[in-house]
Amino acid sequence: MAVIAALGGLLFGYDTGVISGALLFIQRSFELTAGQESTVTAMLLVGAAIGAFLGGRVADTLGRRGTILLGALGFIIGSIWCAFASSVFELGAARTLLGVCIGGVSIVVPMYISEMAPTHVRGRLVSLNSLMIVIGQLVAFLTNSALAASGSWRLMLGLGAVPAVVLLVGMLILPDTPAYLIREGKPGKALAVMRQMHGPDAELDQAAVAEASASADQRAAERAALKTPWVRRTVVIAMLIGVTQQVTGANAIMYFAPTMMNKVGLSTESSVYTSILIGTASVISCAVGMSIIDKVGRRRMLIIGLIGCAASLLVLAPVYGLSKDSAVGSVASLALMTVFIVFQQAAVSVATWLLISEIVPNEARGLGMGLAGLALWVANWFVAQAFLPMVEAVGGAWSFFFFAVTGAIALVFTLRAVPETSGKTLAEVREYMMAAAR
């Protein structure tokens, strides 16, 4: 169940990662400016912001399973549309559709898994979605590399339809969650699903029943709760944690590393291959981070990650500036980008969503999570939209230095405002946030 649902995460990773290599060949086909390259990349993120904000409400209407099925269908249509796009505008529109699907599944897949999984493995199974995202990015990088010699960007983008078909078929054989079925007035079917997933003696638990009480009245109560100062402060902190993940410049490297390596003298084909190293480091680092975060602590992991990201970018800036047509400089730049990704994926990315999910109080959970997701995706869009024009205006070295500075600002924010939630119950975290606001 978790693996099939987490294919949504794999599609998330594939469609965000595939553009990094495809963009070099798309540029040749359509003769894109730096601004147009950024727009083709960033339109996916515009759609993702919309999908993330609306995903919860769609899941309340269509069900978790129905929403994922709709997302899978959107992934199939969007991938095929990308493959046959005849203009930059058409490609941007197709990428926007894919983005809406990405944003929606980024909210609903963890929701589906958490509502289906037994308590004792819930954390690990929900985290599987995060691991599948970076695996999807690595699959995209490997696909780009395999097709680099042919330059077939249409096939690179179109192959995203394959896992989407598997997700569609897989979700057709899975049931919806007990929480949604109770909400729809089907307690008998909800109990049958519980026993199918957890054994013949399973009963409907209180979490499922409580979840079923969410309604339009609950959403109105959440909006009212945001008027409470400590709740509003906590949601703002959650939103800024989401922004923190992006202002390190992580996705500038994930999306544009081949483009940046191409600018310092590597051939187009060789530049595409460099993403394999970054993608492999990303998967391994994410797996390691997931295995140690409960021992190290969420806040401490975030602090370590931000320090590592800022330091590696501070060194990368001058090295990249001196790397033009230098084999040694190119290798050093790629190595430093990889070090940056290790800190980002092992610490910053792993800690971000876990912290957000733990500090947003129940009083405004649905709306607060939606706002945090919206903030993260808007920041992601800004980074993707601004990066290549910034490189063109001030050069790669100063662009990397800029992200080192913004990463340092994010570190100051984390030290001053982000609590440690490791080892605390959600009730204890809630009490801490209330006290901190006084």
UniProtKB/TrEMBL annotation:
<feature type="transmembrane region" description="Helical">
    <location>
        <begin position="368"/>
        <end position="388"/>
    </location>
</feature>
<feature type="transmembrane region" description="Helical">
    <location>
        <begin position="302"/>
        <end position="322"/>
    </location>
</feature>
<dbReference type="InterPro" id="IPR020846">
    <property type="entry name" value="MFS_dom"/>
</dbReference>
<comment type="similarity">
    <text>Belongs to the major facilitator superfamily. Sugar transporter (TC 2.A.1.1) family.</text>
</comment>
<dbReference type="GO" id="GO:0022857">
    <property type="term" value="F:transmembrane transporter activity"/>
</dbReference>
<feature type="transmembrane region" description="Helical">
    <location>
        <begin position="125"/>
        <end position="147"/>
    </location>
</feature>
<feature type="transmembrane region" description="Helical">
    <location>
        <begin position="66"/>
        <end position="86"/>
    </location>
</feature>
<dbReference type="InterPro" id="IPR050814">
    <property type="entry name" value="Myo-inositol_Transporter"/>
</dbReference>
<feature type="transmembrane region" description="Helical">
    <location>
        <begin position="40"/>
        <end position="59"/>
    </location>
</feature>
<feature type="transmembrane region" description="Helical">
    <location>
        <begin position="334"/>
        <end position="356"/>
    </location>
</feature>
<feature type="transmembrane region" description="Helical">
    <location>
        <begin position="92"/>
        <end position="113"/>
    </location>
</feature>
<keyword id="KW-0813">Transport</keyword>
<dbReference type="InterPro" id="IPR003663">
    <property type="entry name" value="Sugar/inositol_transpt"/>
</dbReference>
<feature type="transmembrane region" description="Helical">
    <location>
        <begin position="153"/>
        <end position="174"/>
    </location>
</feature>
<feature type="transmembrane region" description="Helical">
    <location>
        <begin position="394"/>
        <end position="415"/>
    </location>
</feature>
<protein>
    <submittedName>
        <fullName>MFS transporter</fullName>
    </submittedName>
</protein>
<dbReference type="InterPro" id="IPR036259">
    <property type="entry name" value="MFS_trans_sf"/>
</dbReference>
<feature type="transmembrane region" description="Helical">
    <location>
        <begin position="235"/>
        <end position="258"/>
    </location>
</feature>
<dbReference type="GO" id="GO:0005886">
    <property type="term" value="C:plasma membrane"/>
</dbReference>
<feature type="transmembrane region" description="Helical">
    <location>
        <begin position="270"/>
        <end position="290"/>
    </location>
</feature>
<feature type="domain" description="Major facilitator superfamily (MFS) profile">
    <location>
        <begin position="1"/>
        <end position="422"/>
    </location>
</feature>
<keyword id="KW-0472">Membrane</keyword>
<keyword id="KW-0812">Transmembrane</keyword>
<keyword id="KW-1133">Transmembrane helix</keyword>
<dbReference type="Pfam" id="PF00083">
    <property type="entry name" value="Sugar_tr"/>
</dbReference>
<dbReference type="InterPro" id="IPR005829">
    <property type="entry name" value="Sugar_transporter_CS"/>
</dbReference>
<dbReference type="InterPro" id="IPR005828">
    <property type="entry name" value="MFS_sugar_transport-like"/>
</dbReference>
